[in-house]
Each structure stands twice: as structure tokens, then as C-alpha cells.
Amino acid sequence: MKNALIATMAIIIVLLATLVGLLLQEPNISVFEIDRDRAAVASKIALAKDESAKYSGGFVKDFIQLRLAILSVTDDMLEQKRASIIRRISMTYPVGSKPVSVATDAELDEILQELKQAEDQAAQSRKEAAKYSGGLVQSLALMKAETDEMGVAQLRLKFYSAKHGFPILPTPPKDGGQKNAVPLGKVVGDKEAL
User: Fold this and answer.
1) Within 10 A of 155 (CB to CB), how many other CB atoms are there?
2) Whole-model pTM above 0.85?
3) Is 2 helix (H, G, I), strand (E, B) or coil?
4) What residues does 152 pair with on adjacent strands?
5) How crowded is residue 69: how many other Cβ atoms within 10 Å of its Cβ?
6) Contact call for residues 115 and 162 (beta carbons, < 8 A)
């Protein structure tokens, strides 16, 4: 009788400890929020696919395909985050030996502001491209519009990465990593050329 009581108490303690452990690891972002973000990205993917279907080839179609690739990476990232929450897997990404954390509201607002400006620029570029009925001028205007749309897609990736704690890899140094680069226009000898 005494052993059964001790065994029952041990099982109850283990169950309560497991429950407390699960509650302490509760994610700060819900699956519903991620689903909402994925739906927004999916609508952008659908629009880009419809737009891509209008063209048979060329730079504009290539730019649209690149934008689709960026949006697809964003969707995959969100799906991975969703799966980790459902399976209760803690995902951390160290960059430069520092773990990446979720961005603050101020940082997210700053990215959203930048995204709004990029969306406005892309809309203006689309409006400008719509003024022309074809030819080289419209092609150039459409390329500019697609370049702006690609920037918007990249900012969306940046926003969702920051919001959900995914790393954005650091950019390379502006000098291309060359510490002893020769200034442009300076004449160098044969030995210094390489």
C-alpha cells in the first residue's frame, strides 16, 4: 500500500514537472499569427505568379522569378517556425557566436516604415510603367518597377525574419574585404597589379 502511494505520488510529480516545463517554454508568437503572416506572403506569391504568366521571357520575367524566389524563402521560413512551435522545438540561430533574438517593437516599426516607403516607390514605378504602351521605354520602366518590387520582397523577408527571430546574415564589408586596395585611377606597377 505504502509503495503504491509513493509510486502514484512520483508519477504525479513527474506529470506536474512536465506540465510546468511545457508552460515555461511557451512561445511568444502563436501559430495563428504565423498563419496570418503566411497568408499575406501567399497572396503576394499568387500575385507574382499571375504577373509572371504575362511574360514569356526577358529581364522583367527574370526579375519576377527572383521576387518569387525571395517570397518562397520567406514562406519556407515561416513554415519552419510554425512547425517548430507545433512540435515545441526551440529554434535558435547563432550568428557570430551571438544568438539571434526577436526584434523589438521599435525595430519592427522602423522596418515597417521602410517597407511602406518601398511599397510607395514600387507603386509609383508601376504607375509610371503603365503610361507606356510598349517598346524600350516601357521595358525599362517595367524593369525599374520589378527592381522596386524585389526590394519590397526583400524588406518583407527582413521584417518576418526580425519578427520571428531568424537571422539575416551580415553584409560583407564595403571595401570587398580588401584591406590594401589601390584607389581607382592610380597607376600601379606590374607586381602590384595582381
Assistant:
1) 19
2) no
3) helix
4) none
5) 13
6) no
* pLDDT computed for residue 43 by the predictor: 94
Residues 6+ apart with CB under 8 A from 162: 102, 103, 107, 108, 111, 168
Q: 4-8, 149-153, 170-174: lowest mean pLDDT where?
A: 170-174
DSSP 58: S
Name 98's bridge partners.
95
Q: Which residues pair with 99 in a beta bridge?
A: 94
Distance between CA 139 and CA 162 in Å, rounded? 34
- Nearest Cα neighbor of 39 from 69, 82, 85 is 82
From CA 81, how far away is CA 5, in angstroms rounded?
Answer: 42
Q: Which residues pair with 94 in a beta bridge?
A: 99
Beta bridge partners of 95: 98
- Spatial contact of 68 and 156, defined as CB atoms under 8 Å apart: no
Domain borders along the chain are 30-165
Region at 106 (left for phi over 0; alpha for psi -120 to 50; beta for the rest): alpha
Which cell numbers hold the place of 153?
520582397
3-state DSSP assignment of residue 99: strand
* Residues 76, 68: Cα–Cα separation, whole Å: 12
Spatial CA neighbour of 142 closest among 49, 61, 56: 61
Q: Which residue has the cell 517570397?
A: 71
